[in-house]
Write a structure and sequence with these properties.
Number of strands: 10
Oligomer: single chain
Helix content: 40-55%
Number of domains: 2
Radius of gyration: 18 Å
CATH architecture of the largest domain: 3-Layer(aba) Sandwich
Strand content: 15-25%
Order of helices and strands: EHEHEHEHEHHEHHEHEHEHEH
Strand order of the largest sheet: 4-3-1-2-9-10
Largest sheet: 6 strands, parallel
């Protein structure tokens, strides 16, 4: 599949971007549900995490990521980053010629469907600070109580590739989730695409009575629904996954297998200066 292939139909790829490796959990869910789809993925690992940056900076980075993916003529773009979904969704949709699917609204809907009780949300500082999940849940069920907690250490812990049985992970989780336990939430949204890799440890802390909601899995189901309902899904042999990163391709490929539950093939590097140039070029054309 060459750059620029596809016209929005079955053979066009799905574009996915994230601030780093975490969005590969969305890719994993997408390809589990729709193995024939082509996917182009951009992980902005040189500028991870987005969650500690200002909304203005997040929007700028997200628009650059989108502009890069649009060069591949995707049928649809998935904002796999919860932080970018919270801070930049309206701007991304305004700038895109194709559908843009976020991870927040599908995740909120899945949580509301899973329980009638209180819902907890864990995410980055920006995702929690912007109140994106509270608004998404309120749009479905205004009376539902939502408890949100920023967990800024979890993304770097996951990106470091620590072992699942590392005691540091449980210690950090117990500290972050103490309020969720006390308030007896019945569902907990993993409001960052890195967090599914910590699902076993989170379940251990929260206990079996709390439903864990993966925003990655919910977003993949939303993409599947949209493509199938409009006849744009691809059938046939397994699709191609192409990965780009703004940092080390070798590190991305090494850790990417853990996130995607499969090899990610050859990873190409794209510089952040190149991403910035796409936005500049779009501005000159407009």
């Amino acid at each position: 599949m060459s750059e620029g292939a596809g016209e929005g139909g079955g053979e066009a790829p799905i574009g996915v971007f994230d601030s780093g490796l975490g969005g590969l959990t969305v890719v994993r869910e997408l390809l589990a549900a729709m193995p024939a789809e082509h996917v182009v993925y951009l992980g902005d690992s040189a500028r991870v995490p987005y969650g500690t940056k200002s909304p203005e900076t997040i929007r700028r980075f997200a628009l650059q990521d989108l502009a890069f993916l649009l060069r591949f003529a995707p049928k649809l773009v998935v904002v796999a980053c919860n932080t970018a979904s919270a801070a930049a969704l309206d701007a991304l949709r305004a700038a895109s010629a194709v559908e843009v699917v976020d991870v927040i609204r599908p995740g909120a809907a899945a949580a509301v469907a899973a329980t009638s009780g209180a819902i907890g949300v864990i995410g980055t500082e920006a995702t929690v600070g912007l109140g994106a999940y509270e608004r998404a849940v309120a749009a479905i069920d205004p009376a539902r109580r939502v408890v949100a907690k920023a967990c800024p250490l979890l993304v770097p812990i996951v990106e470091e590739g620590r072992d699942d049985d590392d005691p540091i992970i449980l210690k950090v989780l117990y500290d972050y989730l103490r309020d969720m336990q006390r308030l007896r939430v019945e569902a907990l949204i993993l409001g960052c695409t890195h967090y599914p890799l910590l699902a076993a440890q989170i379940a251990k802390v929260m206990g079996p009575s709390v439903a864990l909601i993966s925003s990655a899995a919910a977003a993949a189901l939303e993409v599947q629904r949209r493509l199938c309902s409009t006849g744009r899904s691809r059938a046939g042999q397994a699709g191609e996954l192409r990965c780009f990163t703004t940092d080390s391709p070798e590190r991305f490929a090494r850790l990417g297998r853990r996130f995607a539950a499969r090899g990610v093939g050859q990873v190409r590097r794209v510089g952040t200066d190149e991403l910035e140039s796409y936005i500049a070029a779009e501005g000159r054309r407009s």
